[in-house]
Write a structure and sequence with these properties.
With 332 residues, the protein is of the alpha/beta class. The chain has nine helices and ten strands. It has two domains: 3-61, Ribosomal Protein L15, Chain: K, domain 2, CATH 3.100.10; 83-321, CRISPR-associated endonuclease Cas1, C-terminal domain (Four Helix Bundle (Hemerythrin (Met), subunit A), Up-down Bundle). The protein has helices at 50-58, 83-94, 96-124, 128-144, 150-167, 190-212, 231-254, 275-290, 304-321, and strands at 3-6, 12-16, 19-24, 27-33, 39-42, 47-48, 63-66, 72-76, 263-265, 271-273. The two termini are 26 Å apart.
Length: 332
């Protein structure tokens, strides 16, 4: 597995020759050669020694910090310094016309993915609301082209998401599993819990890909600058929500791989995965990210993890060359 996930609170990651050992209460939970690890994801309070931290940085292995509640905390990454690239990114960020064009592209790709997912489920399980909302999204896409400011584009994204999540529950077919609206911090039902957790994992993947290419995470084109927010990564995450996380969430519930019994209700009214289902989800998420597939018109098979890398590289090239970046739209 190219990703080392650690979910045990109080565990330690230690160096053992050229291997990393995860230890808890003097018991070795796993030991993996460093050469087999692409990234480390810590989903609980875990101790990293100074030696391990240096080892990971020297080998350009990012460490992503998150929680089982679906909150992304940050990333430890060596990154790469590229002042010329940073200056070009700043110039394009300040170019309101360029920002607007990229923002429209991101919002348009997201709405197309939302529409495709609803139409896919409407074909297999006809429902008038799914088809009606998909048609309304087409109208939003037509109007999106005429927006003149980024807040206007964000407004269309908000309208589309409200429509989408308003009927998302109609795509669920497991009795006893319901979804009425999107909520987070904390997620208050099993469906929202899986959505939040998946979005957090994808955010960490995108952060790692962008950091490795020397792009400044805080300078997004759709998302505004806020302290400690990886706005550029969130731009790309918007494009990946439906193809990766939403489809996976629906599949896991509709195939009864997860049921309400796999979740725990917390004291603050939130819901999160129990320990064993959490480990099962991580395995299934990895399978979703690493299974090759082929898009119509594409001559080669790619995985979602490769698509993230390709997106980041295409964005870097566009910024470096001062060209317009066009987000990818996947066939769902």
């Amino acid at each position: 597995m190219p990703v080392l996930y650690v979910t045990q609170p109080g565990a330690e990651i230690r160096k053992y020759g050229e291997r990393l050992r995860v230890v808890w209460q003097d018991e070795t939970l796993t030991a993996i050669p460093l050469r087999d690890i692409d990234r480390v994801v810590l989903l609980a309070p875990v101790q990293l020694s100074a030696v391990v931290t240096r080892m990971l940085l020297d080998n350009s292995v990012p460490v992503i910090f998150g929680t089982t509640k679906g909150r992304y905390c940050g990333t430890l990454s060596s990154g790469s310094e590229n002042t010329a690239l940073l200056m070009q990114q700043v110039d394009l960020y300040r170019d309101t016309g360029y920002r607007l064009s990229v923002a429209q592209g991101i919002v348009g790709a997201k709405i197309r993915h939302q529409r495709s997912l609803l139409r896919r489920y409407a074909r297999n399980h006809p429902h008038p609301e799914l088809s009606a909302v998909a048609d309304q999204m087409t109208l939003l896409l037509n109007r999106l082209e005429n927006t003149t400011t980024i807040p206007e584009a964000m407004g269309f994204e908000g309208q589309a998401s409200a429509l989408y999540f308003g009927v998302f529950g109609e795509c669920l077919r497991q009795e006893g599993v319901e979804f009425t609206h999107r909520n987070r911090r904390p997620p208050r039902d099993p469906v929202n819990a899986l959505l939040s957790f998946g979005y957090m994992l994808i955010t960490g993947e995108v952060v790692g890909a962008l950091s490795a290419l020397g792009l400044h995470l805080g300078l997004g084109f759709l998302h505004e600058i806020l302290p400690n927010r990886p706005s550029l990564a969130l731009d790309l995450v918007e494009i990946l929500r439906q193809p990766v996380v939403d489809r996976l969430t629906l599949s896991l519930f509709n195939r009864r791989i997860f049921t309400p019994d796999d979740f725990h209700h917390t004291d603050n009214g939130g819901v999160r995965l129990l320990e064993d289902p959490l480990k099962r989800y991580l395995l299934l998420y990895e399978r979703a990210m690493t299974t090759p597939f082929q898009q119509p018109g594409d001559e080669t098979q790619r995985t979602f993890r490769q698509i993230i890398t390709d997106m980041a590289q295409a964005l870097r090239k566009a910024i470096r060359d001062g060209e317009l970046w066009t987000p990818i739209v996947l066939d769902l």
